[in-house]
Each structure stands twice: as C-alpha cells, then as structure tokens.
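Cross-posting from the chemistry board since nobody answered there.

I work mostly on the small-molecule side, so proteins are not my area. We synthesized calcium ion and want a rough idea of how it might sit in this target. Sequence and SMILES are below. Is it possible to get a predicted 3D structure of the two together?
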Amino acid sequence: MLSAGVLVLSFCFILGEGYTTGKKQYQIQNGPCSYTFLLPEPENCPPSSYSNLAQRDDPADYEQSVQRLEQLESIMENNTQWLLKLENYIQENLRQDMAQIQHDAVHNHTATMIEIGTSFLTQTAEHARKLTNVEVQVINQTTRLERQLLENSISTYKLEKEILLQTNQIDKLNEKNSFLEKRIEEMETQRQAELSSLQEEKEQLKLLVEKQTNVIKELEQQLLSASTVQQEQQQLIERVNSFIHTMSVPTPGKSAMMQDTPVQYRDCAAVFKSGNKESGVYTLTIPDTKEQIKAYCDMEAEGGGWTIVQKRFNGLVDFHRTWKEYKLGFGDPSSEHWLGNEYVSKLTNEHQYTLRIELMDWEGNAAFSQYDQFSLSNEEQKYRIHLKGYSGTAGKISSLAQPGSDFSTKDADNDKCVCKCSQLTTGGWWFDACGPSNLNGVYYQQGQNTNRFNGIKWYYWKGSGYSLKETTIMIRPADF
Ligand SMILES: [Ca+2]
C-alpha cells in the first residue's frame, strides 16, 4: 500500500508534534483519517538557546532572535511545502489505491459473476441434458407404442381377413350342406323305390324257392330208388369177389414156403457173425420190437462188427436238431448221420457194450478214445451216458464227462449250466457245463476250423478252439 512506512492511520486530523531520537514527530488529522510522520531536526539551532530566547532584552540578543525567527520561518515554510508534497503524494497514492481496490473489486465481482454464470450454465447444460434424455425416452416410448399400435392394427387386419375367409368357407359349406341334403332326399326317394322293387323280387324268389324245393323232393325220391339199385350191384360184386377168393386159396405146403421170414439182426456184430463181413448199410431190428432201422456197419476197424452211431466227414448234414430227431436218428447211414438215441439206449441196456470214438484232424492225424463199458439210460432219464474204462490216443483224459451227463438238444436243456449249452454251441450232446467235448457242433472247413467255440470239439486232444475234420462214434458188444 503506502510506501511511507512511518505513516499511521487514525480517525482525526490534528497537527501536533513530539520528539524521537534526532527526529521530530508530526500528526495530521484529515476528516476520518489521521497521519503521523517524523521530520529531521535542524542541525544549527541547539535547543538550549531556544528556551532562553524570550528572556533576553539587549539588541544583540534581539538581532539574534530575529535571525532565529527568520530561520524558523524558513524551516516552517520548508516543512509546509514538504507537507503539501506529502499530502499530494498521499492523495495520489490513495487515489491509485482506491482505483486499484475498485478495479480489484470489479475484477473479483466479475470473476464471481463469471463463476456464478459458469455454474448456472453448467446447471443449465445438465438440465438440458436431462431434458434431452427424458425427451429421448419419451420419443422411444412413443415409437414403441406406435409400433405396437401398428402391429396390433396389422394383426387385427389379418384376423379380419381370416374371419372373412372363414365366413366365406362357412357359406360354402352351408351351400354344400344344403346340396347334400337335397341329394340325400333324392337318394332316399330312390332307395324307397328300390326297396319296394326288391321286396317284389323277394316275393318272386320265395315263390321260386318253393318251386325248387318241390323239384328237389322229387329228385330225392328218384335218388332213393337209384341207391337201391346200387346196393344190389354191390352185393353182386361181393359175391363175385368171394368166389374168386375161394378159387385162389393155396395148398398147406405152399403156405409154409411163403411165410419164410428173413433173418433179423440186432446189431452189426450180429451181421458180422452171420458171415456178412463187408462194411455197408444193413437193416437192423430194434430189440423187443419189430421196428427196423438202417445202420452202417464197419467190418474192418479193430476186428469189425461195429455199429456206427455217428459219422461226420463233410459237413453236408445239419446237426443242430431237436430232441425227437436225436431220439429217432437223422441223416443217411451211408453218409453223415446220427443213428438214434432210442435204439442205442435199448441195445446197450440189454448187453454190455464198448464205445469207440475215432477222430481225424485237418492235418491228417488220427486218434481214438475207447470206453470198455458204455450204456445210455432211457428217454425218461434223458439218455444219460454211462462210461467206464477209458483208453486211447485222443487225450490222456476222457473228453466225455465221467460220471456222465444227460443229453441236451436245442429244445431240451438238461445240462449243468445256467445257460443252454446246446443253443450256445449247437448240436445235441451230453453237455456238462458245457464240458470239454461236442462232436455234434458246427462243421468248419479247413482254414476256418480254429478259434471256434462252437465247432466239433474234443478238448483233451486238440484244445477248446479246434474243430475236427472227421468223427466216428461206434459201438460193439463188449464180449465180441
Ligand atoms: Ca442249462
């Protein structure tokens, strides 16, 4: 502010004076303000002479006092001028300060106003933005509503169109309905006319039937008289036949020659013993019956007399057969075949028999298994197999289970497995569960005969997966 650091502001303008060290202090009151300032002391007027000035009466002293006064006046004038300068200076400074204050005040006020204006503008902008948002939302809502309105009007239009179509269809149906009703009426009328004509026809037919019945009755009477003639003819024929029979009765000697019955063989051993030593098919008679059976007799192997029970060598016969087929036999005795469980059972229950099984593999090796004692139980006991005295080259152990198993076929499950061995491995056999052998399995050709669970199996000779090439099962009385 004011550069004169010695000034002090107060509320009255009083000119007074005081003393500090070497300087004189003055105070000026100007309206509400008071100024205090210090002035330098004149160097050549010592205060001690000043205090005695008025008490002196001599002319020298007076001269000196006048000079002194003049000096003081001069000093006063200097001081007054100096004060005026100071006043001007103060006033000028004050004016500048006031101007500066005013300027600052205006500036501050303007800044505040600008700030307020900015804040107001910001708020206005914010409001404008919010307003815009609201406006956008309102526009969106309006658009959506307009769209919905449009959609509604479209669907309404569609519905109206459909209703129109339906109405048209209903009209058409009504037309058709009335047309059909008319047709029905017409048809009913026609039907009634037809019905009445049919009833007439029926009456006519009734009359015709009555007439026909009468004709039939007449014909029956005629037939009766004809059958009487036929009976007479029949009696005549019988009489002629009886006459012819009487004429053709033979003499007693000739009758004995004609009743000469052929020799009956129970098995091939019997055939062999009767002198027939050639292998082939022979007719055998089932024990205790007059039933006959064709069987192949092997008259060469091990002294001959063998009745062949089973033969396989080419796979032409299917061995996956029923219980009844295995009971009575199947196939051709001169080729692949099964002789029949019933015959073998009856035969082996009368005499002690030996069982021999001859096998051949696909590599040309032959082997056999033989049992000194063999028999089959009857059908009630499921043709159970009984074996004793094993020997042979087809395995050190018998591949037929001992003690024996019941016979099973695809339609008779008598094995010891929870499964059905016959259905699983095919063929009829004395399965155990399912056991180490099945000579009635599937016939596999060479090259396909390995890794087969359902082939012709004789485990203790060729293992479980090997299917054999040839098999022969044959029996002969143990005492042959
Ligand atoms: Ca079973």
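Reply from a structural biologist on the board:
Welcome over. Reading the output above for you: Residues 1-17, 47-56, 249-260 have pLDDT under 50 and may be disordered. Residues 268-477 form a domain with the Gamma Fibrinogen; Chain A, domain 1 fold (CATH 3.90.215.10). Happy to explain the token format if needed.
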